[in-house]
Design goal:
There is one protein chain. It contains 6 helices and 7 strands, in the order βααβββαβαβαβα. By secondary structure, the chain is α/β, with parallel strands linked by helices. It has one domain: Isochorismatase-like (Rossmann fold, 3-Layer(aba) Sandwich), CATH 3.40.50. Helix 4 packs parallel to helix 5.
């Protein structure tokens, strides 16, 4: 069975208290994300790491405070979550060169990673039988990624101790909607035990 891991938006601007759009408590998931990413690489699974990569005047900043501006420290992922064999896939259409990559950094300018023009081609190239999803924020980007992956017809699991929410009730509601749609919930120890 080919499993593809989805590490959603684990970037400094979301993870650390001084981040431009800090998610309270999110720094606690960094060790779990690092553990899952390393486990995936050690077991020949590819990690797709979605990352916001905004322009300084991005339209999303009409709704959310400025964050994850491309090239800034806040846009970066913690080193512990990065794998050595990685490629970056921009939001605009591009020719993909995924051979040998253990981590695909999938850039996006909106909440939904499926807005990236290349994601469908990335998924086709990876031939996943199932997906494992984690990161921030449960009720927004994690939920959109997980729901989109469910629409591929493959099993999808969210790792509940490797996600963080902005509002607990909204995060719980997102997880309930996900399981009602056929997704499953798991924990880090069940995946990378």
């Amino acid at each position: 069975m080919t499993t593809v891991f989805f590490d959603v938006d684990t970037q400094y601007d979301f993870l650390v208290p001084a981040g431009a759009l800090a998610v309270p408590g999110a720094s606690r998931i960094v060790p779990a994300v690092a553990r899952l990413n390393r486990w995936a690489a050690e077991h020949d699974c590819v990690v797709v790491s979605t990352t916001d990569a905004h322009a300084e005047n991005d339209v999303e900043f009409h709704t959310w405070p400025g964050h994850c501006v491309a090239g800034t420290l806040g846009q970066r992922k913690p080193e512990s979550t990065l794998l050595s064999q990685r490629v970056t896939v921009p939001s605009r259409w591009a020719v993909l060169a995924l051979t040998g990559a253990r981590q695909v950094i999938l850039e996006k300018q909106s909440l939904n990673c499926f807005d990236n023009a290349n994601l469908e081609a990335v998924l086709a190239a990876l031939h996943a039988d199932r997906y494992v999803v984690y990161g921030v924020v449960t009720e927004y980007c994690v939920a959109l990624a997980a729901q989109g992956l469910l629409r591929t017809g493959r099993p999808v699991a969210i790792v509940t101790d490797a996600v963080e929410t902005l509002k607990r009730e909204a995060g719980d509601a997102a997880l309930q909607a996900f399981t009602a749609a056929g997704g499953t919930l798991t924990r880090v120890a069940e995946i990378a035990g």
